[in-house]
Specification:
By secondary structure, the protein is mainly α. The protein has one helix at residues 20-44. The chain crosses the membrane at residues 26-45.
Length: 46
C-alpha cells in the first residue's frame, strides 16, 4: 500500500529503508511544520 503526503501530491512515500532515528526526526519536522502552518493561518485569519 502506498501513502502520499497531504493526500493530493500522489508521490509515494517509502520510509521503510530509512533509519528509525532519521524517520522519527523527519516525522517530528513534518509535524512541527504543520503546526507552524496552522498557527500562521490562524494568526492571518484574524
Amino acid at each position: 500500500m502506498r501513502r502520499s503526503v497531504g493526500g493530493r501530491s500522489g508521490v509515494p512515500v517509502r520510509l521503510g529503508a530509512v533509519d528509525p532515528k532519521t524517520r522519527n526526526r523527519i516525522m517530528a519536522g513534518v509535524l512541527a511544520l504543520m503546526f507552524l502552518v496552522v498557527a500562521l493561518a490562524s494568526a492571518l485569519g484574524r
